[in-house]
């Protein structure tokens, strides 16, 4: 059983809200007092150090993403192309169902894998907690991996068992993945217990403001870096599919998933975890329904106001003032998420239609689906630069990149990726010898697939600003009792983008696909200024909103998280350069 930090129940007596730590509650000399307005103007903002338990959770995600990207990397070829005469193969395949079916099944897998996080979030927040939910769904995931691997062996392909086995495996793996995805990112952030900014004096004599905002940004940058290191597994699996066969390509990620389960089990005593809340959804429904009945909306539903204005409504109140503020903050975050399906639509082309686009070009001895690894490669290089150089430098000079601004940049880079892909597709149609696609022998036109690299680089940059920030935003803006569910709602936007992708399957064929890329590029570009116009004011209140916590949580945080000055300075020394 994982270590549990009991969350204060939502009782009216404990409803006192704070936005920054109160000095007489901070007795540990390792921590300083709350920043004054003058200190906010003059001191630089820095991130805190990250607990060891957070790195264990990042290791779990690395193993799971190694598995996911390792098996999904070959999917397009596995479904689209017929079995080759022998291996090594110029164009590997197994099911021979064509590009439209391959894109549709890839889209279904994405759809299903990002619907199931809602189930995982509900189970974790209301019943089992994050740790046990991850463990149970991890076992389900492993069962799906075994089915996928066994049905991809040559005898299964020859007997016709591979296609039904593949579909069953997709359903089971998607279910297991959903239970893990909704909980692992909240669990990594949960390892950091400080809730509010405070002033610290370094040994050098410099005084700095340590903020949860900068720390969570750092945690999720490292978390996403681990995801993309794991994502490089498709380099190996796409080469295995070409040289040996799909059974070998799927066996590798299946074997890698075992360490992930071992880390979950062996590290169980180290994880800090908020317990399952119980009837949180009933409470949210009751509060929301009440807000529609009283004048003043959610704010009028605070017990402190109800006691004065509508005392007859107090008999069914089980929440406190802070929970009302938390829920309002969550609703604002969910509105931000509504824009994401368009961005995910651009992102999802990376593992489907761009893979097929590479097959229409000259790839030499390199598998066409290996080029998608440019994306994690760029992320592995760029994330540490952003985390260690760009973000600290901007904070030093008083220009922190706030969440809404970062997400807007993500939309712009996503649009650039699709515009570039449209240009590449146009060049393919103008190149000999086939002009409109690939030849009968699977040969491409006389244009190098290396020309795709900028498209993947633009997608990677868009992920840094949109995807990482979305994970961070979903965690920070959710109440402690709803972290997994709100994270699942953010991931659900991937599912909605899959619905849009389904609608585009009919144009995911030559020569229409060029205009599909153009349409996605235009839609994503239009969303960027509209998103900024609708939500930029939330950047102004970002720290204030994050500071909606209970005193008990702050006191627990200061007791649970006590880094030494030496540890802290070692962690932020890059910002002192």
From TrEMBL:
<feature type="transmembrane region" description="Helical">
    <location>
        <begin position="455"/>
        <end position="475"/>
    </location>
</feature>
<feature type="transmembrane region" description="Helical">
    <location>
        <begin position="487"/>
        <end position="509"/>
    </location>
</feature>
<dbReference type="InterPro" id="IPR000109">
    <property type="entry name" value="POT_fam"/>
</dbReference>
<keyword id="KW-1133">Transmembrane helix</keyword>
<feature type="transmembrane region" description="Helical">
    <location>
        <begin position="134"/>
        <end position="157"/>
    </location>
</feature>
<dbReference type="GO" id="GO:0005886">
    <property type="term" value="C:plasma membrane"/>
</dbReference>
<keyword id="KW-0472">Membrane</keyword>
<dbReference type="InterPro" id="IPR036259">
    <property type="entry name" value="MFS_trans_sf"/>
</dbReference>
<keyword id="KW-0812">Transmembrane</keyword>
<feature type="compositionally biased region" description="Acidic residues">
    <location>
        <begin position="25"/>
        <end position="37"/>
    </location>
</feature>
<feature type="region of interest" description="Disordered">
    <location>
        <begin position="1"/>
        <end position="37"/>
    </location>
</feature>
<feature type="transmembrane region" description="Helical">
    <location>
        <begin position="515"/>
        <end position="534"/>
    </location>
</feature>
<dbReference type="Pfam" id="PF00854">
    <property type="entry name" value="PTR2"/>
</dbReference>
<dbReference type="InterPro" id="IPR018456">
    <property type="entry name" value="PTR2_symporter_CS"/>
</dbReference>
<feature type="transmembrane region" description="Helical">
    <location>
        <begin position="403"/>
        <end position="423"/>
    </location>
</feature>
<comment type="similarity">
    <text>Belongs to the major facilitator superfamily. Proton-dependent oligopeptide transporter (POT/PTR) (TC 2.A.17) family.</text>
</comment>
<keyword id="KW-0813">Transport</keyword>
<feature type="transmembrane region" description="Helical">
    <location>
        <begin position="244"/>
        <end position="267"/>
    </location>
</feature>
<feature type="transmembrane region" description="Helical">
    <location>
        <begin position="219"/>
        <end position="238"/>
    </location>
</feature>
<feature type="transmembrane region" description="Helical">
    <location>
        <begin position="163"/>
        <end position="180"/>
    </location>
</feature>
<protein>
    <submittedName>
        <fullName>Uncharacterized protein</fullName>
    </submittedName>
</protein>
<dbReference type="GO" id="GO:0071916">
    <property type="term" value="F:dipeptide transmembrane transporter activity"/>
</dbReference>
